[in-house]
Amino acid sequence: MANEIIGSTDLHLYYGKKEALKGIDMSIQAGEITAMIGPSGCGKSTYLRSLNRMNDLIPDVTITGSVMYKNKDIYSPATDTVELRKEIGMVFQQPNPFPFSIYENIIYGLKLKGEKDKQKFDQVVEESLKAASVWEDVKDKLHKSALSLSGGQQQRVCIARVLAVNPEIILLDEPTSALDPVSTGKIENMLLELKEKYTMIMVTHNMQQASRISDKTAFFLEGNLIEFNDTKKIFLNPEKKETEDYISGKFG
Ligand SMILES: Nc1ncnc2c1ncn2[C@@H]1O[C@H](COP(=O)(O)OP(=O)(O)O)[C@@H](O)[C@H]1O
Ligand SMILES: [Mg+2]
Q: What pLDDT does residue 1 have?
């Protein structure tokens, strides 16, 4: 499609013999927020992880089909998965800062790349924390442990850590489901601001959240992509009965 940044064709994924993704065709557009909804166990997290090869880390996984990122097959043996995961970063449900200072969390990826310039570190720390709307909260305690922060602040630091390595795509797996409504609101506003620079793909079990912030919504059911369209269309006038039943709360 015209402005595709990443997409899959006939993507199947098996955990042992269990087929968790049953042939997913999906084309994700650059600069959009794409939400993934569906009942627990339908394959949302599995699909998200397949977009930056995080499933490679799980034993006994078999994947067929393709995932194209900027016209390259990420499952080709030539892919450097460490590089790939910098370009396609991931944020998880539970904030998972490293047990170091806030500052060290943010520069972790740069240090891995071999960067040593203290000025560069300072600059990236400030820019990333500002972009993740958490600078004001932490600027006076950058050298305190990230674990001393609230859950919402930790999650924003984790997002800043992803931003610090300059990604193209940010994958978010239920990033606010462990947070209170105020922290959730802050993260939603931040994601809307980040939309200017990044493509985001977000799993959420919160349908209001999907309708508030996403451009497109994908509805998954039992390993299938049932419907994928503009968020307004999915919520106001879905094509498929299963989508309608799910969003009207008949199951899930
Ligand atoms: N590491 C794993 N090993 C085996 N089965 C898994 C693993 N992760 C997920 N599954 C199974 O794959 C299916 C899809 O799971 P998941 O992608 O986590 O769904 P969702 O994120 O939509 O809740 C479920 O049946 C789940 O039990
Ligand atoms: Mg999940």
A: 59
